[in-house]
Amino acid sequence: MSWFDQGWGLSLTVFLPLVGVGMLLLIPKSQERLIKFVALGFGLASFAASILLLFRFEFGSSEAFQFGTDLTWIPAIGSNYHIGIDGISLPMMVLSTFITVLAIVYSWNHWPDPHNPKAFLALILLLATGMAGTFVALDLILFFIFFELVLLPMYFMIGVWGDRTMIRLPGFKREVETRLYASIKFFLFTLFGSAFMLLGFLAIYFKSDPHTFDIVALHQAGSMGVFDGTYGMWVFAALFLGFAVKVPMWPLHTWLPDAHTAAPTVGSVLLAAILLKLGAYGFIRISLPILPEQAQTWAPAIAILAVIAIVYGSLACLAQTDMKRLIAFSSVGHMGFVMLAISTLTEAGLNAAVIGMVAHGVITGLLFFIAGSMAHRYHTREMARLGGNQTLMPIMAGILAFTAMASLGLPGLAGFWGEFMALLGAFNPLAGLSLGVFRTAMVVGAVGTVLTAGYLLWMLQKVNLGEPSEEWLGKDLHDADRFELAAWVPLVVAILAIGIWPKIVFGATEGAVANLIKTAFGG
Amino acid sequence: MTTLLGLLALAEGGEHAVEVVTDPGGFVGVLADFAWLIPVVPLLATFAIVLVGKRLPLKGWELAEGAIGFVAIYAVALLIANWVTPMAVEHHIEISRIGSLPGLGDLVLEWGWVVDGLSIMMFTVVGVVGFFVFTYAKGYMEGDVRFTFFFASFSLFAGGMLVLVIAPNLIQLIVGWELVGVASYLLIGHWWEDHDNNAAAIKAFITNKIADVGLFVGVIILGITVGSFRITDVLDAVARHDSALAAVAFWAGLGLFIGAMGKSAQMPFHVWLPDAMAGPTPVSSLMHAATMVTAGVYLVGRMFPLYQTGGMADDVKTIIILAGGATLLLTGLIALVQDDIKKVLAYSTLSQLGYMTAAMGAGAYTAGLFHLFTHAFFKGLLFLAAGSVIHGVHSNNMSDMGGLRRFMPSTYKTFLIGSVALAGIFPLSGFWSKDEILASLSNDASHGGGAAATLVLVLAILGAFITAFYMTRAVYLTFFGEYRGDGHPHESPRVMTYPLWGLAALAAVAGFVNIPGVYTPFTEWLASRIHVMGDHHAGGLNWALALIGTAVALAGIAAGTRLFRRDAATQAERDRFRIPVLYPLLEHKYYFDDLYLNGIVGPIKGPIARFVVWTNQVVIDGVVNAFGAAARFASGYVYGWVDQRGIDLAINVVAAGAGEAGGVVRKAQTGKVQQYAGALFAGAVLLVVGFLIFS
Amino acid sequence: MFDYHALAPELIIGGTLLVALLADLVLPENRKYLVGVIGLVGLAAALLPLLTVGFCDDLPFCEGGAARVMFGGSYVVDDFALVLKGLFVLTGIISVLMSVAYIESDRYYQGEFYFLIIASVLGAVIMASSRDLITLFIGLELVSGPAFLLAGWRKGDVRSNEASLKFFLIGVLSAAILLFGMSLVYGLTGEITFEGIRVASAGLSEEPAFILGVIFILVGFGFKIAAVPFHFWAPDTYQGAPTPVAAYLSVGSKAAGFVGLLTICYLAFANVADIWGPVLWILAVLSMTIGNLTALKQTNIVRLLGYSSIAHAGFVLVPFAMAAAYDAEGLESAFSASITYLLFYAFMNLGAFAVVIAGAEKAGSAEIDDWAGLSRYAPGLASLLGIFFFSLAGIPPLAGWFAKFVMFRSVMGGGAGAWGVALAVIAAVNAVVALYYYARVVKTAFMDPVPATAPLELAARHQTAPALALVLGITAAVVIVAGFYPPILSFFGDAARVLSFGG
Amino acid sequence: MIVNQFLVLGALLFSIGVYGVLVRRNAVLVLLSIELMLAAVNINLVAFGAYVDDAVAAGQVFALFVITVAAAEVGIGLAIVVLIFRNRSSANVDELDLMKW
């Protein structure tokens, strides 16, 4: 298996879906069954590869980049095909391949208009490559490519299969279809951010000596303070713009509610579960270790923005009438916790960030699945019209309640660790950071958990509980079908497992995080 | 001696640490080592019920009953063992390392279990009372829409509660703490077709969640400053007067206590408990009277060395004692005007929790927990009996009852026993525990407790009167006079009455395990902790206070009898003049709910949330869209004026450059090609001129 | 003196011209397309010597190395020249392929059409090697002259005539200005060859007449590359001219203009970079910004591509802009950045035009709104549209990103300093703006409903001509592969850099 | 020898040419104005050629090339003008605004 450990394993994980895209294009549109199986096959293959890596991973030295390879890619600009995973990227990569498979399974009999499974599955697989690739890339340019690779498919997914209801934007005369507005908004926002991110990468490249895009080498350079002073300040600002848009951090978040709401179910799931993580991962993998000094300067600002996001997102949720939009806004709050954790620059914080990302991935992914299926049944997402779902579809409602509990950070379920440890980290951030800011942030964040509980419980009350309104009594609303359960049960299990035995994630991250903090901040 | 979980932990690369102070050894040792089964069995039962419950002959009840029975037996076994030889054993299994603290080493997450007097006492309460309630519930919930789901949630609660009390570290304690919260949410909202119940459930959850902010902060402070979440490590730090901890101990202690106030429904967090009566009566009995609501008191007891005099956060004691005092009196008063029998008991519970809290505040570790112990039995009993009544008359309101002693004798007798015990009449359990609290309060008053202790002592005595009074009222309105309801009330089935008698027996005798100065095994149990509990416990029986307490209670009964024995029919109106000044205040429960709803929750859910969304849609997105609009406008402008027409301007420039007269320029502005040409040339000229000027 | 191996491409193309003329005389009307075939063969044949010279050192039979100097330094065949000749020939081939069906549709003067395109390519090929003013000028005129006529090819169509005349007048005017500039430069340096000028111009950067000369030369090329404010002819001409011709103009003749600019700036005016650097900074900013903003408003796809090509000219100019500030490394990377950008741009823009030709036939018009729902009845074509347009927008993993990237890279590094960063930021913002109008076309094709007026049955019947399909295939393949593995193109950009300064 | 007068003459001719290009409405005249500009260029070249008088007489050679190319361009130009005149029976450049927007 040495070939597998020397880059092939990772490359397969990343590029098998891309091969799948190629295969799909060759299959005529009419062969839907074949198309589905091929897509699922490649998704599973990629997932299997990542699981195999998981088992071969050397947890004892999780700070080292494993299974890596470093081949020349674009000599003209000194950029290499350098890949590898450490304890931080491993959980994220597995998560991405995992969610991809579930997305394909779920799609099996849920096709948003206009049908066209061929194109839809091709886009999912393309996304899969981009997502997994971002987590394994160890070269800034390679990272950039994968980071951007997710844009096009998601743009088409939202724009073509998205929500067709008309909205009027404040200050505009004409009404526009949600999907059109949301897709281009998502696209422009992200591209705007990443354009500056690219400039930041170049600035890093030219400041490093010898010039390099190699992340590992740059970690060393960063720990030796190569990028200090105002120069680094601007670089950090540029990277911040790129990552913060993706996370998204307040106030750059407004693309998110629109995109999540407009996207087809699977699109929302992938957006929430993986795409948002790319930004936060960028902070952990690039900003912090390469620009530690600036990270310390910026940390309080990030913490403040993060808690604003927590409270702001939760309050916004309280006013939502659209179930899907509520879940979308909840992501703002939850990613706020992740960013708060990151901004503490402590081991506890970064561990919290990673487990928080994984937890948010499985939990919010599941929430979007269910919201999608319910909209599929009821043909509305207005919570005012729903209600009594518990009576109409007990299983689905049960899973929804369970997931909501997980989402509000119930101990014993996945959501708790990220939230609690974010607060824990905020209580004593990296030495030298303003205690006042962070402890205030901790208290505000803790209050945020109350609001979170509030809107989730109110959502449950509106959607699940009470007597079903008579408009549904006649309809045949079948409960979760077998494809839905096939997609959801694994997530439920994951939520429970991570909640009861968080070492599933910590076991991978602790070493890597400790090393990162030590080299970057000497703490 | 490694256990299964231990093996798993080792397999996971964690460590399995055992901390034994007094090793019971032998079979008892084995019991202690496998005590982790106590919470795990009910939790497994929960999953089993959810998965297969519906298919079982008794629809899952047997699993729940089996689990709680197991717990009861295990607990009693431990109790006896501990009676023989006091033990204190802790097991810790490392989950994972989550970070390191400079100077303090690694910060780890652990699961674990502590088997000492305190936890054993709690196992016993949960197990034994739980066993009776589960049995009773089979009859009470017979034919309910969600019979199976009910027992799933119920054993989830049992499991959560036991996770809480068995927790050797604060994180695990939080886990149990939140689990019982969820179970409570599920069970209060058990009949969720009616949105009032859901509202009550949410109210309970949110109120607790708010208090939990305090708990979280407190736990985090302790964990970070001590460098470990183990309760024993924290208490060690207290014992060795760790300076770092001393600096923050007050806030940590306060935080923990705020959490406790939430769970134990101390003012001003008490609002959720009366509403929680929306749940089925067995739930009210086990969770909202016997066990869950006492978790706060338990927490203070578990962390007692932190609060005790000479401990680091003993300033918090004043707050604790005052909170307890306020709660025990004010909520007791509200009980006077309730018509719903469960509400009466609910407010009585609040008031009794006030006693416990006050005792803790008085530094009376044993007294507080002793009252917790006895209260569990008689209040559990009272609720079950009330449930039996409700089951019989299909109404919660005492105005629909009356004269039931003829129809349901055992219910009547057991309810009477419970009431007398609660009123604190010799020799029933309530007498002993309440008397001890009074004694400890006076003791504290004379040992530096100061004015607060004295005040609360007075309140407590007053409370004794009120307690007796409203219980008498309840008894008369329910069981005496003429039956005012409709239909034919009937005694409940055996499956319900037997538990009543069982609890009645315990309620009667439970007090004898702690007769001050005579026979006090209970004190020894609670003393068998890894850390010595300083506890200025009144030495002998305080005759004076005992007499006063009894006298006051009797006075209450007398007053109740005099007011309520004859005309129970129209009591609602008469309450008005019987409690002249207070009545409106009591009727509106001191306006707490209105304050919270209209003052806090309303605004946040309404205007504030809407404002936030407005900022999102209009302000922030406004900026975003404005950029788009600006780009479009700019493009229109550039295309229309610069690219297409504005070239005229260029021509003028050329003309100026070539020294031409304006007239010619007019003509020059006609043909487009020539405009292009002009622009070309103008560009050239501008560049040259500009360059010559600027370089 | 004469190096036939090095001159082989020019000779072959010249020969092809003559053959084409003769063939046009003898061939019957319905066989005229054979002239196109002859042209293709000739151009393809011209590629061979380019390769053999380029890889001379690795070939047994070839001596003399890759860089060869002729006519006293007036005519140099170095790797830079070879790469660009290759680019021009390929562009010629692709343009011819695009034209086949298009020209056949209105069937007259096919022969001359191919003749003129090949002639124009020959001019560009000569420019790539010319290292003195006269040769450069001749090459330039040889590129432009035929183009003027090609633009007016659809004789019946008044728009086409108009396009042609505008193109012609502005072209000639700019040529005159260029010449005036050249005359001044010649006069003040007394030199014709770039080398001589470079040496002689050492101290002249303060001399007003010389500055005037340099700037006039820049203006002359500015017209050729359609940089703002010398761009006005471009949209009109692209819209009016036959679309394949527009494609050729926007790639071939634009690239030719850049070749002139590159050689004359980096070789002849290397010592007076402080004159042309700032000027080109301004031109770059104006071209990017105005080009993009104007494109937002367009309703006709060809016209939109016209403005987009103006914006791209701005992007290509970006690396020039900081030349004055560059160290040697900076200069080299800037030089290669421009060439690399041209290489990538050539393929994606030709592809885009090919899509427009095919799409206009399918949808029956080149108005954006008429393309609504194209993906419903022509999914393949719509996908290609997406590929090329997003590549032009520079979205990974399509080739365009790399062009943009090297452009950013050149201004961020090499000690460019604040002005460089400012330019980079402006370029970045422009890249985002550009995305909007590219995405708008794609959105129309993919996300808008098919209009009732759409000629569906016609579209169903209509088959994209094989030659055109071939073009689409090649360009799409290059765009996708080069997106994941840029070296297949950037290799040449690099090679050109290294040796042009050696030679 | 003195080159300045020639240069001034060239500049004047050039300016006149520009003026013509900008204001004359008939395409033929515009064409001729451009020819004037080219003539100015030639004057410059020849004058400079004489002035620097290098071995290859580059100035004069250049001038010859310019003359030839100019002739060719006039050929192309007139062809286009004729074409337009056929289609619209007018050779006024200011009527060419079909593609204004």
Description:
The complex is a heterotetramer of chains A (about 525), B (about 700), C (about 500) and D (about 100). Chain B is mainly α and about 700 residues long. Chain B has helices spanning about 5-10, 25-35, 35-50, 60-85, 115-140, 145-165, 170-190, 195-225, 230-240, 245-265, 270-275, 280-290, 295-300, 305, 315-335, 340-360, 365-395, 405, 410-425, 430-480, 495-510, 520-525, 545-565, 570-580, 585, 590-645, 645-655, 660-670, 670-695; strands spanning about 15-20, 90-100, 105-115. Chain B folds into 2 domains: about 1-395 and about 495-530, no CATH class; about 595-680, no CATH class. In chain B, strands 1-2-3 form a 3-stranded antiparallel sheet. The radius of gyration of chain B is 34 Å and the shape is globular. Chain B starts with a helix and ends with a helix. With about 500 residues, chain C is an all-alpha fold. Chain C has helices spanning about 5-25, 35-55, 80-105, 110-130, 135-150, 160-190, 195-200, 210-225, 235-240, 245-270, 275-295, 300-320, 330-365, 375, 380-395, 400-410, 415-445, 455-460, 465-485, 485-500; strands at about 70, 75. Chain C has a two-stranded antiparallel ribbon with strand order 1-2. With about 100 residues, chain D is an all-alpha fold. Chain D has one domain (about 5-90): Helix Hairpins (Orthogonal Bundle), CATH 1.10.287. Chain D is about 75% helix and about 0% strand. Chain D has 3 helices and no strands. The interface of B and C includes residues 635, 636, 682 and 691 of B.
Give, in spatial order, the strands making up the sheet with the most strands of chain A: 1-2
Distance between the termini of chain D: 54 Å
Figure out the total of helices of chain A: 20
* Total discrete domains of chain A: 1
SSE-based structural type of chain A: mainly alpha
Largest interface: A-B, 64 and 59 residues
Structural class of chain D: mainly alpha
